[in-house]
Amino acid sequence: MDLRKLKTLIDLVSESGVAELEITEGEDRVRIVNRNGAAPVQLQQPITVAQQMPVAMPAPEPTVAPIATPDVVQSGTPLTSPMVGTFYRAPSPGAEPFVKVGDTVKKGQVVCIIEAMKLLNEVEADTDGVVKEVCVENVPAC
Asked: Which residues lie closer than 8 Å to 112 by C-beta, 6 or more apart?
């Protein structure tokens, strides 16, 4: 911060009647105190520009233990939902599910419905195959 800016700030504080003004510009910090209220500022001490030095902080210790992964080898192709929503195995309550464990599915066959934003979206199989596991269940009705 240059001296012309400091002089302008001192004049503004003295004319406005502001009791105190503190300005930070980048790493420079200036604090001007008007000890006489509305009267002009009379500096008892020279104004100094303090530079803040960066403080080195130690790296935080990890607080979460690593997750142990089971030694299970996944075979096949998982089918994941293309969106977030409510999962339904069947086209309507009480109806048979689209697919069960052990069923053979063809590419493009509907395997479930995902309700998102009041729209029912059919999820189709990506590839031909056999259903080995259904990892989610219907949401119970309220």
From this structure: 87, 88, 89, 98, 99, 122, 123
Residues 6+ apart with CB under 8 A from 75: none
Residue type present at position 133: E
- What is the DSSP code (8-state) at residue 1? -
- The count of other CB atoms within 10 Å of the CB of residue 41 is 19
**H or E stretch at 16:** helix 3-16
CATH architecture of 86-130: Beta Barrel (2.40)
In the chain, helix, strand, coil percent, each to 5? 10, 25, 65
**Residue that the structure tokens 């259903």 belong to:** 131
**Which residue pairs, CB below 8 angstroms and at least 24 apart, start in 52-56?**
52/27
pLDDT of 45 over the 50 cut:
no
E strand or H helix at 13, and its extent?
helix 3-16
Q: CA angle 37-42-46, nearest 5°?
A: 125
Per residue in 8-26, pLDDT (tens digit) is 878 877 777 777 778 787 7
Q: Domain limits of the chain? A: 3-51, 86-130
